[in-house]
Write a sequence for this structure.
């Protein structure tokens, strides 16, 4: 399997499953690299590599606290992803509504028999 590209956009960055896991763990708030390593059972070099990519696209920011580096999610940078996915969410909801209407029709027909 080919490695995921590390591009300068959020879409490319989140294509890698471990990066999505890192974003998920940062939803709860700011965390040190060591905590992320423990949460995900990944090696420190792996986590650092993924954090670097996420930082480059602005999905996470880092601040120094002594020798520790604390990372936090920047959810506003996910807006382009949300806007793109919203179209598909609307299409899915429309299909589910049509299916619900069809099931109601079937139930109504069954009650008439």
């Amino acid at each position: 399997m080919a490695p995921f590209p590390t591009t300068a956009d959020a879409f490319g960055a989140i294509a890698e499953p471990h990066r999505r896991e890192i974003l998920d763990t940062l939803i709860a708030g700011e965390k040190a690299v060591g905590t992320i390593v423990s949460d995900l059972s990944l090696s420190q070099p792996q986590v650092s590599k993924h954090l670097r990519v996420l930082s480059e696209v602005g999905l996470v920011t880092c601040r120094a606290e002594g020798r520790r580096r604390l990372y936090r999610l920047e959810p506003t940078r996910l807006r382009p992803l949300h806007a793109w996915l919203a179209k598909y969410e609307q299409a899915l909801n429309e299909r589910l509504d049509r299916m619900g209407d069809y099931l109601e029709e079937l139930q109504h027909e069954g009650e008439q028999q």
About this structure: The mean pLDDT is 88. Residues 28 and 73 are 9 Å apart (CA to CA). Residues 10-73 form a domain with the Arc Repressor Mutant, subunit A fold (CATH 1.10.10.10).
